[in-house]
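User: Design a sequence. Structure:
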């Protein structure tokens, strides 16, 4: 617990508290730490013990700090070990030993999870930090790339840009986002209208299951389907993606247009009407935020055209004469970020800089930046999909609500184009034809005190509630990658009907297929069939967990199906090969582990 003592701002009471806590933890965890180390050392084929960090290791704090892109939980939950494997082979002992000891595993690639579920848990856990597994192999003849799942988007873009000026990948905006999390949750970005989601451009994947076996597409087509939008951590550890690279022109045009919301209602409506129907090469997303001192709600149209300025200008004249963008505007020196219009003709990789608010003249190396920001930024986010334009009254409400808050933001990403051509069941991401755009809501703060964070989150929840009449209904849908645990977790209530509520928000009809897949995966010892089960890819407390209340199993001896009504919630760790048990499993980590030892003893 050294890291806690290193933080200088603490008062003496807090120090006392931390001291007591660390004594408690030291007592409680040392046994597991020893057990884990001992277990790992029995796997001689790998060097994993050299890449394991406990809270006393000097590197532990910096790895964890880098991991926590949303540091809201910094003071509340830490892994008892961080495992940072340098080869795929080192992952297997981590899985098998955690499973043996009964520790949870949290899989962390880029650490951008909005709710922090890749780096926190209420139970003792090991954080599997994949960021050293970031090798990228590009095959320009085949126009594909094998990308290890710990690689960031920036690392992927960098590797592509080093090799080709006319290839790109439809990833997302933020360079430090992990390909592990982004692609397994879908992946929206400025190329989505032309090429679909990141997940739509995966041609193969390698993953490790709970028994340490490596699977690829050919070996398990169902799993391959699931991890392209269904979330990775519910199914295993994704080791690498094989991605289809896409062709981009040598010259692309980026432009942004600033407006005030209160004087641009018509423009806003027009954007809603047509942004999803524009030619696929034209992507115009909309950021809505508060304009600093003036306290005005601002619109910021951030756009990309896959082609030169001279093609774009006539298109805009046709679709958005209101932007009043002229050829001249695109060849200005010294335009400032706050300018009403900005436009540049650039390479595709420079357009990525622009979307991430970096200078377009930046060196390629900005893509690789992994520094830990000195200024902490805390946030909460959520999302919606929109199927019909929001009426005047909706925008009035949004403007009113935005003016109550200092750090709100909505990002509206148009869909349509390629997204309309892909069927809802092609991947778990079901939000295809009929959806006009996605809304991402966020609120940020820089003082993480209880009172501030509570107030900020209350504001976001209020906005989310007020948006209800204007967004997709039955179910009100959401995007998994903008994870919001307000939709539910399996924390208290284990009913299938509740899990279905948030499962269908993320996946609509695909929820059932994901669920049935998980059930089969979870218990290799007994074949579990259709169940009243709910499953928890966004469970607050677990990376890979499933719970059952009614279970249909196939008897090993007679092959006859049997329904087991477990009555109380039953917790099954998919790392278990022992399958279902009739005993409700204690929820907390200590109870779980003693339960597990009991089961193992009874089997041996
Ligand atoms: C600043 C910022 C910008 C963003 N921009 C975009 C954007 O442009 N487009 C977009 O679609 N999304 C965007 N997102 C959302 C982002 O896609 C998700 O937060 C995504 O889950 C992050 O992936 P990660 O690997 O960085 O996160 P992590 O926190 O490491 O992982 C997220 C989830 O995936 C699981 N996971 C990660 N790696 C693996 C693996 N190898 N195997 C199995 N499971 C794994 C984790 O256990 C966790 O459940 C953004 C988020 C932030 C914070
Ligand atoms: C283990 O580590 C040593 C020294 O760090 C290295 O020489 C060796 O190649 C590693 N072995 C494996 C299997 O990675
Ligand atoms: C952790 O707690 C300390 C003491 O209360 C506080 O000063 C600090 O800001 C907290 N850190 C985070 C990241 O919340
Ligand atoms: C928009 O808001 C500003 C600042 O509150 C105000 O001065 C202006 O008159 C408003 N414009 C319209 C069209 O309502
Ligand atoms: C948007 O579309 C609606 C319905 O087709 C139409 O009534 C409205 O005038 C359009 N608004 C704008 C600004 O284009
Ligand atoms: C742009 O800025 C540079 C450096 O400040 C200056 O030398 C140049 O004259 C400016 N160009 C224009 C068109 O204002």
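Assistant: Done.
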């Amino acid at each position: 617990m050294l890291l806690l003592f290193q933080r200088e701002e603490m008062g003496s009471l807090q120090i006392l508290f931390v001291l007591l806590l660390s004594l408690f933890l030291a007592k409680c965890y040392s046994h597991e730490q020893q057990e884990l180390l001992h277990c790992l050392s029995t796997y001689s084929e790998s060097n994993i013990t050299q890449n394991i960090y406990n809270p006393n290791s000097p590197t532990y704090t910096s790895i964890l700090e880098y991991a926590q892109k949303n540091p809201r939980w910094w003071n509340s939950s830490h892994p008892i070990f961080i495992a940072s494997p340098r080869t795929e082979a080192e992952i297997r002992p981590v899985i098998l030993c955690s499973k043996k000891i009964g520790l949870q595993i949290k899989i962390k690639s880029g650490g951008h999870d909005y709710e922090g579920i890749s780096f926190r848990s209420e139970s003792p856990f090991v954080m599997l930090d994949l960021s050293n597994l970031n090798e990228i192999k590009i095959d320009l003849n085949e126009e594909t790339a094998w990308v290890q799942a710990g690689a960031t988007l920036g690392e992927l873009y960098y590797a592509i840009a080093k090799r080709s000026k006319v290839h790109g990948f439809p990833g997302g905006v933020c360079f430090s986002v992990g390909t592990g999390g982004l692609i397994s949750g879908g992946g929206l970005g400025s190329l989505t209208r032309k090429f679909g989601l990141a997940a739509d451009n995966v041609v193969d994947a390698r993953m490790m299951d709970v028994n340490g076996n490596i699977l690829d597409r050919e070996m398990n087509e169902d799993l391959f389907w699931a991890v392209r939008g269904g979330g990775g951590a519910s199914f295993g550890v994704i080791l690498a993606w094989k991605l289809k690279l896409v062709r981009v022109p040598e010259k692309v045009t980026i432009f942004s247009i600033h407006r005030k919301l209160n004087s641009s209602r018509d423009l806003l409506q027009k954007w809603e009407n047509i942004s999803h129907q524009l030619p696929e090469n034209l992507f115009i997303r909309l950021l809505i935020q508060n304009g600093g001192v003036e306290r005005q709600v601002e619109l910021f149209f951030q756009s990309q055209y896959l082609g030169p300025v001279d093609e774009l200008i006539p298109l805009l004249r046709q679709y958005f004469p209101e932007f009043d963008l002229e050829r001249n505007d695109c060849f200005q020196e010294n335009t400032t970020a706050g300018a009403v219009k900005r436009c540049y003709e650039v390479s595709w990789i420079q357009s990525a800089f622009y979307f991430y608010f970096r200078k377009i003249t930046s060196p390629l190396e900005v893509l690789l930046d992994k520094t830990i920001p000195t200024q902490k930024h805390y946030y909460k986010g959520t999302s919606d999909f929109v199927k019909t334009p929001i009426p005047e009254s909706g925008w009035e409400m949004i403007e009113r609500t935005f003016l109550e808050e200092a750090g709100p933001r909505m990002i509206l990403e148009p869909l349509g184009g390629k997204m309309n051509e892909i069927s809802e069941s092609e991947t778990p991401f079901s939000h295809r034809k009929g959806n006009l755009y996605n809304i991402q809501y966020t609120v940020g703060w820089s003082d993480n005190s209880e009172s501030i964070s509570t107030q900020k989150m209350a504001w976001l929840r209020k906005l989310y509630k007020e948006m209800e009449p204007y967004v997709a209904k039955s179910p009100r849908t959401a995007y998994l990658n903008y994870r919001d645990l307000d939709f539910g977790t399996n924390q208290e209530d284990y009913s299938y009907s509740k899990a279905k509520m948030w499962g269908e928000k993320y996946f609509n009809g695909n929820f059932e297929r994901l669920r049935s897949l998980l059930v089969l995966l979870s218990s290799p010892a007994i074949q579990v069939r259709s169940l009243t089960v709910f499953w928890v890819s966004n469970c607050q407390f677990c990376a890979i967990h499933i719970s059952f209340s009614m279970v249909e199993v196939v008897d090993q001896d007679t092959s006859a199906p049997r329904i087991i009504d477990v009555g109380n919630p039953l917790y099954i760790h998919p790392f278990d090969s022992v399958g279902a048990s009739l005993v409700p499993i204690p929820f907390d980590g200590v109870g779980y582990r003693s339960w597990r030892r009991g089961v193992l003893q009874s089997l041996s």
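The chain has a mean pLDDT of 81. The chain is about 30% helix and 20% strand.
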